[in-house]
What does this fold into?
Amino acid sequence: MFDIPVMVVGDVMLDRHVHGYVRRISPEAPVPVVSLAGEVDTPGGAGNVAATLAALGARVTLAGLVGPDAEGERLRQALRTKGVTRLALHEGPGLETISKTRILSEGRQQLLRLDRDGDRAAFAEASGAMLDSLLPALGEVSAVVLADYEKGALTPPVIRAIVEECRRRNLPCVIDPKKAEFSVYSGATVVTPNLLEAERAAGRPLSGDDAVASAASTMRQALRLDAMLITRGPEGMTLSTPSGVVHIPAQVRDVADVTGAGDTVVSVLAACLGSGWELAEACRLANVAAGIAVSHPGTYVVHADELATAWRGLSPKVLSREAARRRLEQARRHGRKVVFTNGCFDILHAGHLASLEGSRRLGDLLVVGLNSDVSVRGLKGDSRPVIGQEDRARMLAGLACVDAVVIFDEPTPYELIRELEPDVLAKGGDYTVDQIAGADLVLARGGRVVTVPLVPGLSTTSILERSARFP
It folds into this structure.
């Protein structure tokens, strides 16, 4: 989607998620005993920004500070797994890799977080050497992101030097701020505080569109920015440019977790601006991407294919096969049970809903394989489907019990099931297990195949037959 070179500079960190099962309280202290089920390493901070840009198709260079320690090696491996292979991570004396370890129950409830923040003085001392190595490389990129988490890598001299060099080279410079005083960011292309950060910088509460718009414009002018973008959670975004102020409504989503939404916004903005997009349109795409990110638990990396689908107006639940595979792999790493069912769902009715809700109760996440228009015609004749595949997908994605929809062209979902590897395969009660496509694949992996009872007298065919009698 965005095949351009981008540099990300900032506070890199390792996010570790350790999950397990809680069945008892420790006899030693009133704390839960967690039986370890698994752990996942993901890039955090500036690393998550780099991972998102890589998922959008950008060629990312990540610059930051790490220690010569095991956490640093784990961070490098997590970055490579996410497609971030151009690493300009500087090691120096006294540095420790920043890490956050979260202990989670099987219900995804966070029980404890262990932070390793490192020595700020050591980071500040090493930041100059990092700057010397990356400044010449700015001539090889199309955009720069400064991901400031106020951990020590982005000192004021480092920020000023990068912003001024970007201005000299006419490079878009996007900044996610954490410092209380924004003057250090002056001259950047766009600064993207959230509402709380903007209120802290403005020195007053910002309630309502007018107050936010006024503060955004005042700060933009004072800081000599091309734009100020204030992200406001459920209230959307407010963009101030010399042309005026635009309020961008939030995407309507079931919010699962807002962690990493700011990273998503700056990543998409940098990719768009580096590709020559107009700023307002770039903000609208960033808004769509943030809506996708917050609809997933934990820090979620938005990929190009799902963003392109959502930009066309389809629900982010409608996924390509590759996007679905990635999402399910992530879900399984976090101990979630994946259920798969399939059908044509031509004229969605209460019988479909009952079957889908019954399927969803069999696990933690329900994926629906949807026969494409080509597939439906092959199965049911040229008069079907009555409703096109994108509209059928939208209807399914609108159901609370459905977590993902994947359209397939084959007569059966056998190959799709092979690719997605669900833990449970569910199908309507008019099938026996030996008639269900993909049952052998699921059973061979130790999964379950379940038939869900149908609602008597409800089917698309019967509905169409009844409607034909009453023209």
